[in-house]
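Please produce the structure of this protein holding iron/sulfur cluster.
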Amino acid sequence: MERPLTKHIDLNRPPLNLKEYEQVGGYEAVRKVLKGMTPVEVQKLVQDSNLKGRGGAGFNTGLKWSFVPMGPEALHPKYIIANADEMEPGTFKDRLLLEGNPHQLIEGMILSAYAIQADISYIFLRWAYKKAAILIRKSIAEAYEAGYLGQNILGSKWGLEMHLHTGVGRYMCGEETALLNALEGKRATPRAKPPFPQVSGLFGKPTIVNNVETFCCVPHIINNGADWFKGLSKSEDGGTKLYGVSGRVKKPGCWELPMGVTMRELIEVHAGGMQDGYEFKGALPGGASTDFLTTEHWDVKMDFKSVAAAGSRLGTGTMVVLDDATCPVGFVHNLQHFFAQESCGWCTPCREGLPWVEKILLNMEKGHGRMEDLELLDMHTKMLGPGNTFCALAPGAMEPLQSALKYFRDDFVRHIVEGKCPWHTATETPKRFAESLMV
Amino acid sequence: MLTETEIQAIDHEVKLVPYKKAAVIEALKIVQKERGWISDESVEVIAAYLEMSPAEVDSVATFYNLIFRKPVGRHVILLCDSISCYVMGYQKLYEGIQQHLNIKFGQTTPDKLFTLLPNPCLGCCDHAPALMIDEDLYRDVKEEELEEILKKYRTKI
Ligand SMILES: Cc1cc2nc3c(=O)[nH]c(=O)nc-3n(C[C@H](O)[C@H](O)[C@H](O)COP(=O)(O)O)c2cc1C
Ligand code: SF4
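Below is the modeled complex.
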């Protein structure tokens, strides 16, 4: 089984430096492209490979690039940005690529920048990834020194600058238009679309934002072709995917696997099954803002289309497992606490609705739930759903809530009828904890 | 007043952007690094230097959770309270830290050594529960290990 993205990653040693990376074929793709491909040919090749964005939405990457104005009339500088904000709870895949092989990301960004004829690039890195920041800084410096960055790259007359930007927190910085505002020194609130960033992005100039994993696929597509990339996958979407599993499984972790492995294989084989004494109850397949899947979805293929057909989203591909010893209402409360806190406050349904949802769930956990609360929660899943808010944060927050209300409704009802959290009777800890949060 | 070091660092950032204002987040980071937090006075001097109003600077400063608008202790403990750490029991760590330091989320010890803050997902969910102290990441943390971990920072300047 081929693992192009992680083949040269070994966390027990420092990542490959520039020389070592070149020895295993690194920056070959840059040479190939600068010698004999036009920008539009690169766009087309990536589009044909059916690489879909790994940041969560799953949009065809080459197609996204094709919306950038090209030719002498186009506005410059054009920008290309790696979204390395990775703050979706339960997600830890980009960290592996950033700490494991920073040159792969830089090469992918150079190729993508060439495809849209960008002049300036940024890596927008979340604050918490301290080790990655040090490694990326060093790798960028090496790439400048070797002439892969800067003016007139490899004698091609085309040049690219690259900067590392480290954030100061907030989940919203990962939303691509809010990210642009953050880079411009503003509050990270989203922008209205249209105009799309491809036409008017950072400082009003054409801009592409892609996820770290998306960029890391590009050198391999250039080197091996679109058909090879499609062939890596077990489904329609091209390539391999970094999958992760966390929660009460025997071996939580992150693995590069063919796109389209089943949930069963992920949990039973790669994650080693559930920990002894715990049973699987459900899972969020791709981070906090995806709908629950349950045992009935055990054989669903983890690709964009199949997971959508099962009523959820592949999202980031990193799964959070809910076990039978964890209260589903407490689990969903934790998620809503996060979303309410991270709401940027720009639009009313999200700013006002999420804290309301959070309070209802906390009250249920404390044993003060009422039957009407279920209707209120149902109502919020509609009012904060797609189309009613300015960005995808609130609809994302509603995904685990609406599916929990569907699959675990009995557990919500038990909280109300019994006047307590059935999971928290054995120990008083969680209740005291919930109260301490109210301070 | 901004110090010479701060001005130099801010000027460097200003050169990278089309207009001064766009460097405000970098300026806040620079000043916080020097002074530990962002006071009202810091907001005013940054505003004056970047030709913005203090309110504009403050609107940015208060948006980002890692810009501190109140003084913090010498060491900031960021305990992950997101979903994988919830499942793996970060609540126990929270209780443990409360016992050792007698502070809750948002509070600073009287000796100004530690501030405890909740933090969304640290991106190492396969090693939950996790916490960060200053720039150091601790993974798969057990309650029994807290004392040892905290001890390191009691003596560290
Ligand atoms: C609230 C919110 C947070 C997001 N956070 C991230 C993130 O941390 N990393 C990321 O790559 N995409 C994130 N996205 C998705 C981006 O908006 C965007 O779709 C993505 O970066 C595009 O890259 P791709 O086409 O390569 O997937 C987020 C979206 C929303 C609505
Ligand atoms: S949905 Fe929430 S996060 Fe998105 S713009 Fe509205 S308030 Fe901000």
